[in-house]
């Protein structure tokens, strides 16, 4: 990809896109293959940067990763798993948070793991304290090393009674990937129950794991000595589906999202209808369109599943800048996820940020001086502007704002989008967007 995207706005996006496996599941499924005594096959794998990063990390640890040229299905063979040097790991870790999830599987297979300092979208502090606490509870020894941490299990790993202070997706995955082969029973209270968590549980169960999910966010895992391989089709990316749905609304367009699944988008679809968006569900996907007329403002609070997901917030905020009245968005999952609004305000949006919890329930950030609530007044006309892509979802929101805006916008840092949106440029052009990618920097 060049690093400058020129966007001529004002055209509705219309047509069809296909969404494949979830960015927030596929890399974790690839890591799970390390736990198996046999090769695994992962299907419905999108061509995104995060998959390349994990392919590199698995390869330096001796896992044979093959890709079917026609289907993109991945073969994952852990037979020759070995330790890797910190520089080898560093060379592949890139800007991802996935390396932290290698801990459990590597300790089970080679007794140790080195985790480089993590990257990921700049949407908050994103500490790993929950991860380290649960790993220590299994008996792991955590040592700080230059450029990262070294983790080992000199006495093996034993099941434990755990409770998360907040239903963290990553920490829940950490427990699942460690407990399945730990000695004895693990009980995790306060667990995350996102669709991606359930899909990971299905993969581990296919490998031979014994996992029970109770309705009160308690997950019970009975450790087993050996796991086999899996053959699994990854669930579709609900975040990409919701992003294209917002793009249809913002550009007054009409987009059929093949692969979108109602089951994983319930909270999003309710909100979409309340704003005035239309959708139609069929067995293969969901059609999203702007019904004409004015969009309606609303009060929105992000939350863990089954609430309104934080990754849906940024693209939908762009639609709220076009709603007829005042909307309020209270971000309760990440403390710094409104930085992207600066560029929207420069494009003509009216958005004020507040430190108070402007929602129905006070959240963790209430008393901590974070601008985590937004008041959006609309409708305001959007005008083209130049911007640098800040993070994955913030970047997508900037691009759909530019596609709706009058005039021309120029975007740099476009590579970030490739981390989570497959064939992004092809899809935009297929939907009739007037865009041009060039390598010339500004
Ligand atoms: C996953 O991140 C997703 N990323 C995120 O999607 C998503 O926003 C998030 O879950 C919430 O659903 C991937 O799956 C790769 P968390 P994760 O642990 O696991 C705090 C996108 O755009 N926390 O559930 O890193 C943390 O700071 C990305 O696709 C601790 O305090 O999220 C945050 O405030 C962005 N200590 C909250 O919990 C910890 O040890 C939720 O984080 C761990 C987390």
Quickly describe the structure.
The protein has 442 residues and is an alpha+beta fold. The chain has helices at 26-32, 49-60, 86-93, 103-110, 129-137, 169-179, 195-207, 238-250, 266-275, 310-320, 341-346, 392-404, 424-430; strands at residues 4-8, 14-18, 40-43, 64-67, 74-77, 112-116, 141-145, 148-152, 161-163, 185-189, 210-213, 219-222, 231-233, 254-258, 277-282, 285-290, 299-301, 325-330, 350-354, 373-378, 386-388, 408-412, 434-438. The strands form six sheets. A four-stranded mixed beta sheet has the order 21-22-1-23, with helices on one face. The chain has a four-stranded mixed beta sheet with strand order 2-14-16-15. The chain has a four-stranded mixed beta sheet with strand order 4-5-3-13, with helices on one face.
**Tell me, what's the shape?**
globular
Average pLDDT number: 95
Instruction: Name the structural class.
Output: alpha+beta
Q: Count all strands and give the number.
A: 23
Small molecules in complex = ligand EPZ
Largest sheet: 4 strands, mixed
How far apart are the first and last residues' alpha carbons, in Å? 15 Å
Function: Cell wall formation. Adds enolpyruvyl to UDP-N-acetylglucosamine.
Pathway: Cell wall biogenesis; peptidoglycan biosynthesis
Subcellular location: Cytoplasm
Family: Belongs to the EPSP synthase family. MurA subfamily.
Describe the protein:
By secondary structure, the chain is α+β, with helices and mostly antiparallel strands. Helix 5 runs parallel beside helix 6 and helix 10 runs parallel beside helix 12. Helices cover 29% and strands 24% of the residues. It has helices at residues 26-32, 49-60, 86-93, 103-110, 129-137, 169-179, 195-207, 238-250, 266-275, 310-320, 341-346, 392-404, 424-430, and strands at 4-8, 14-18, 40-43, 64-67, 74-77, 112-116, 141-145, 148-152, 161-163, 185-189, 210-213, 219-222, 231-233, 254-258, 277-282, 285-290, 299-301, 325-330, 350-354, 373-378, 386-388, 408-412, 434-438. A four-stranded mixed beta sheet has the order 21-22-1-23, covered by helices on one side. The chain has a four-stranded mixed beta sheet with strand order 2-14-16-15. Ligand EPZ binds next to helix 5, helix 6, helix 10 and helix 12.
């Amino acid at each position: 990809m060049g690093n400058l995207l020129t966007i001529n706005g004002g055209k509705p996006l219309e047509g069809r896109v296909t969404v494949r496996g979830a960015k927030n599941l596929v890399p974790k499924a690839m890591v799970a293959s390390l736990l198996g005594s046999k090769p695994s096959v992962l299907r419905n794998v999108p061509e995104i940067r995060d998959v390349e990063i994990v392919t590199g990390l698995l390869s330096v640890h001796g896992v044979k990763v093959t890709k079917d040229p026609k289907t993109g299905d991945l073969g994952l063979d852990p037979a020759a798993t070995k330790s890797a040097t910190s520089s080898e790991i560093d060379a592949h870790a890139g800007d991802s948070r996935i390396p932290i999830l290698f801990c459990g599987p590597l300790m089970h297979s080679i007794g140790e793991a080195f985790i480089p300092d993590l990257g990921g979208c700049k949407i908050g502090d994103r500490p790993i304290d929950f991860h380290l606490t649960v790993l220590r509870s299994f008996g792991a020894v955590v040592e700080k090393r230059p450029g990262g941490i070294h983790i080992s299990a000199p006495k093996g790993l034993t099941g434990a009674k755990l409770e998360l202070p907040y239903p963290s997706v990553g920490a829940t995955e950490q427990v699942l990937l460690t407990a399945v082969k730990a000695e004895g029973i693990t009980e995790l209270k306060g667990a995350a129950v996102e669709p991606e968590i359930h899909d990971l549980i299905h993969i581990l169960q296919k490998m031979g794991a014994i996992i029970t999910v109770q309705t009160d966010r308690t997950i019970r895992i009975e450790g087993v000595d050996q796991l086999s391989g899996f053959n699994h089709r990854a669930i579709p990316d609900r975040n990409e589906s919701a992003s294209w749905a917002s793009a249809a609304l913002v550009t007054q367009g009409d987009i059929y999202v093949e692969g979108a699944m109602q089951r994983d988008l319930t909270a999003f679809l309710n909100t979409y209808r309340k704003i005035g968006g239309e959708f139609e569900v069929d067995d293969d996907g969901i059609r999203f369109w702007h019904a004409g007329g004015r969009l309606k403002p609303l009060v929105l609070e992000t939350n863990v599943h089954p609430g309104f997901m934080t990754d849906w917030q940024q693209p939908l905020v762009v639609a709220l800048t076009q709603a007829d009245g005042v909307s309020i968005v209270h971000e309760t999952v990440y403390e710094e996820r409104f930085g992207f609004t600066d560029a929207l305000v420069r494009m003509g949006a009216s958005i004020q940020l507040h430190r108070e919890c402007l929602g129905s329930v006070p959240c963790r950030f209430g008393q901590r001086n974070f601008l985590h609530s937004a008041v959006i007044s609309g409708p305001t006309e959007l005008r083209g502007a130049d911007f640098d892509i800040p993070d994955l979802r913030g970047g997508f929101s900037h691009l759909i704002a530019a596609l709706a805006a009058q005039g021309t916008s120029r975007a740099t840092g476009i590579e970030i989008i490739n981390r989570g949106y497959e064939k992004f440029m092809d899809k935009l052009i297929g939907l009739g967007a007037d865009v041009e990618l060039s390598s010339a920097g500004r």
